Amino acid sequence: MRQMTTMCAAAGLGLSVLLCSLPAAAQDYPVTPQQRAVAQATAQTGIPEGELAPNAPDVYVVKRGDTLWDISGLYLLRPWRWPELWGMNLAEIRNPHRIYPGQTLYLERTGGRARLRTSRPGGDAGLDGGTVRVSPATRYGSLADSALATLRPQFIDPFLAEPLVVDAASFDRAPRLVATLDDRVLLARGDRAYARSAPNTGPMTTAAGQPHDFRVFRNTVPLKDPATGEILGYEAQYVGQARLLRGETTQSTLRDGKQLDEIVPASLDIVGSKEEMRVGDRLLPEPAPMAVSYVPRAPEVPVDNARVVSIYGSAVANGAQSQVVAINKGTRDGIESGHVLAILSEGARIVDKTDPSRASIKLPDERNGLLMVFRPFERVSYALILDIRTGVKVGDRLVLPD
Fold first, then answer.
1. What angle do CA 77, 147, 371 make, to 5 degrees?
2. What is the spatial distance between Cα 24 and Cα 94, in angstroms, rounded to a whole number?
3. More confident: 12 or 50
4. Three-state SS for 155?
């Protein structure tokens, strides 16, 4: 959408100018009352300089490709404490998601406290001293799509569409591909397929209000709690997309003098493919587009016995930075998008060679990195590894970041 942006009276104010006439809904992400309260308190006092990252720059120009997590980590020792960074500049950044490439951030340090501004400290709203004459002007442009993302979208966008955690019963009730046009063994984009509903679930139909667009999934993989062995859900393998053309019907046919009612499966076109599809694959309705805000923050709930369940799509035992893992906590445990957890590596068990009895000892668990939840389900969640010292393994413990 093209939006007319009129230069405000205080032309040259950076962020506030850029936002003066953006539609309110363009970047309206949820901010919790707790985050706002922290930010408001910080806006009054700043933060202790000891909370700043050692190399926090005095001046930083936001670049295309930066993320909110990058900038938070640039200034704070604990980047998940986003409200503190936001609060340092609450007067000018009223929504923490409205930060754009090209803006200049200034770090002000006074009295052992620090504040982040979009105008130069001591200057007049960013005019850097002196007098700057401006003439009224009008410019056109869309800023709605240029605000910085919290995380790099290429790492998480596929997971908003592809992996799906379901229970076994739901997957078994899903419609299935039963045949192909011209007896094709494998299906790709542009091919025709036929599908049937599971027994006692009602036929697939093109009636208003019924799903017409589907995602195609293959075999499910059980996600087991590494501590208890309990199956928390099943991860379905995404293989493509299909669109319903004609619903299931029955057709009366006279054969050998007898009237027979024959089943006519639904007809679908394959409209997208990640992998080739085949008979037996399951169909689940295309969900509504997700508008998710990933505000980095520590969970407000305990995360007892939280562990890494699996490393998605990896043929190796250890997960690396920017890989996705599944964890054994979900919405029923109070886990939400944006929650940051610390990863602990289990301490090794060794023999104490200084002890004459050669006692066996276990070294302490050590913090190994951070991950952020970006897609929670009821009993499991997907999370992105934000930084890591050594590889992440299935069974690694997760705790609140300190």
1. 40
2. 12
3. 50
4. helix
Contacting residues for 101 by C-beta, under 8 A, at least 6 apart: 62, 63, 64, 66, 146, 148
Check residue 220 and give its pLDDT: 82
Instruction: Look up residue 20 and give its amino acid.
Output: C
Amino acid sitting at position 363? L
**Residue 43 burial class via C-beta count within 10 angstroms: exposed 0-12, middle 13-18, buried 19 and up:** middle
Question: What is the rounded end-to-end Cα distance, in angstroms, of the chain?
Answer: 42
* C-beta pairs of 206-212 under 8 Å, 24+ apart in sequence: 206/244, 206/245, 206/246, 206/247, 207/247, 211/244, 211/285, 211/286, 212/243, 212/244
CA distance 312 to 159: 10
Residue 9 has pLDDT above 60, yes or no: no
Give CA–CA dist 221/206, Å, rounded: 31
28: left (phi over 0), alpha (psi -120 to 50) or beta: beta
Residue of higher predicted confidence among 74 and 402:
74
Q: Rounded to an integer, what distance in angstroms lies between the CA atom of residue 99 and that of residue 68?
A: 8
CB 363 within 8 A of CB 347: yes
Answer yes or no: are the C-beta atoms of 217 and 284 closer than 8 Å: yes
pTM of the model: 0.66
pLDDT digits (tens, 9 = 90+) for 325-340: 999 999 999 999 889 9
